[in-house]
Amino acid sequence: MTSMSRRARLLAALRANLACRGRLGLGRVVGTPAELERLAAALLPRPPRESLESIRRRMGQCERCPLAADRRHIVFGQGPEPAAIMLIGEAPGAEEDRQGLPFVGPAGKLLNRMLAAVGLRREEVYITNIVKCRPPGNRDPRPEEAAACRPFLEAQIRAVAPRVICTLGRPAAQALLGTKAPISTLRGRWHRVLGVPLLPTFHPAFLLRSPERKREAYQDLKAVARALEGKERLD
Q: Would you tell me how many other CB atoms lie within 10 Å of the CB of residue 225?
């Protein structure tokens, strides 16, 4: 059983216990969903932390899903270890596949400008995707493809030890949070994954097509910057 499924079972048990105590008129601890998530993270055993270099070696020339057949490069990730912020997108595009680096095409250039607008530098953040190989035609990653990369992504999160995660786009947010909710309802609200505060926002590629939504993405990144300064509520 994975750490995420153990956490889900533990959270369900905690909620059921609190509900039962309430029905019986017993005293109960009142807590927000985020506080329950932190409690679950504290109670679960933590896997040993592995370096990014070790994770990449373990991945090897990965052929764990069909995306390996058409890729040029595995796009593992880029940035410091540890890093205060971790950005997670959905998948490499054509330029990323050519260079083997994340967010180096037009969407990456916009992302760099967005980070600079809130006082952050690309060199300060760790950037990766939920899948490490380009899907044909830049389609969304399929659930089984994301699942094949999930153990490596979780290991990356533990290695980077970010204070805040920001997901870029609907597929990344849905995959990490285990939901089918639209990005319009997920963005602007704090969530948690592996005990780390997570804020979804729009993907820069979407913003290139829909520039009228840039203001909302800017607000999200400002919230991320405020969180690093301890000026943002994370639940």
A: 18
CATH superfamily for domain 52-228? Uracil-DNA glycosylase-like domain (3.40.470.10)
Is the pLDDT score of 12 beyond 90? no
**Beta-sheet pairing, 164-168 with 125-129:** unpaired
Q: Is 34 exposed, middle or buried (0-12, 13-18, 19+ CB in 10 A)?
A: middle
Whole-number Å distance between alpha carbons of 139 and 148:
17
Q: What is the reported pTM?
A: 0.81
Q: Name, in order, each residue with C-beta under 8 angstroms of 15's C-beta and a sequence gap of 6 or more.
A: 36
Q: Is the dihedral of CA 27, 33, 39, 40 positive or negative?
A: positive
- The Cα–Cα gap between 172 and 4 comes to 16
92-114 pLDDT tens trace:
999 999 999 999 999 999 999 99
Which residues lie closer than 8 Å to 141 by C-beta, 6 or more apart? 67, 90, 91, 130, 131, 135, 171, 175
Domain residue limits, the chain? 3-43, 52-228
